[in-house]
Amino acid sequence: MLQLTQVRCFVTVAEELHFGRAAARLNMTQPPLSRQVQLLEHALGVELLERNSRSVRLTAAGAIFLPEARRLLRNAEDAMLMARRAGRGALGQVAIGFTPASSYDFLPRLIHALRATYPDIELTLEEMITRDQLAALASHRIDLAFVRPPFDARDTRARLVRSEPMVAALPHTHPLATRAALTPADMEGQDLIMYSILGGGYFHDLVRRLLVSANIQPRLVHHLTQIHALLSMVRTGVGIALIPESASRLGIENVICRPLAFGDAILAELYMVHRTDDASPVLGSVMAIADQITATDGPGTRPA
């Protein structure tokens, strides 16, 4: 079996064509250097160098082997560097699950920061509802989940990474679009595009809590799953929708967003969840970047 030390000794002698100079480069004496080359020749079953008292020359086999030997040493060095980077969490793969609404602000910022800090971490992204993410986490299909509460998953750890208020999305021609913020009186009796309890259960419950907390009774029209669909209905003048503040940055044409003057304590929360037994350095690097984003904004503050 080839030894890297033997290959390195051969390459150095082949480059110097002199055992004395090669030994000096390698900080060793000539006898062990000569021995290493002999061991390599024995392992290969061919003579690589022609030696006499006055000169050293490459044999035909040695001339062919030299570029391959150099490539072998470069590959070995690259492999060591990659292993060290992987050990530091700078190289590897992480599969991430996320809910649709988390892709409006937090997830893009996370991806941008990871590309800047760890360009060799490869991310696999999969959009899933919370229940499916937790199942995928348990089956090792994904490594990290960004989910909405409430949830109950064994052998996992979770931490809050984003908490944001809901805002009102209105057609730009709506009479309330001129208001700085909407009060319960403004919302009373309005046509409100609602979330489906099946596909949009988290935001359905959140909006219900907001309405009950302020004793508002709007006219509920339509029950849709995706925030994009709600905003499309708003754009066409069907009614008003309550959306997480991050969704207001989507820039939907002819849609105006206004803060709510009620329900300050009722916030849309996003949690980061991972398996307790996953000690992957690269996963740790991804979560550290997520924590930095949270620390910069504060989980309950609005991103700048």
TrEMBL record:
Record domain HTH lysR-type: where: 2-59
GO CC, any one term: protein-DNA complex
Molecular-function GO term, any one: DNA binding
InterPro entries xrefs: LysR_HTH_N, LysR_subst-bd, WH-like_DNA-bd_sf, WH_DNA-bd_sf
Keyword Protein transport: no
The protein, known as: LysR family transcriptional regulator
Top-level taxon of the source organism: Bacteria
UniProt lineage: Bacteria, Pseudomonadati, Pseudomonadota, Alphaproteobacteria, Acetobacterales
Keyword Membrane: no
Family: Belongs to the LysR transcriptional regulatory family.
Keywords: DNA-binding, Transcription, Transcription regulation
Species whose genome carries this gene: Komagataeibacter oboediens
Pfam family, one: HTH_1
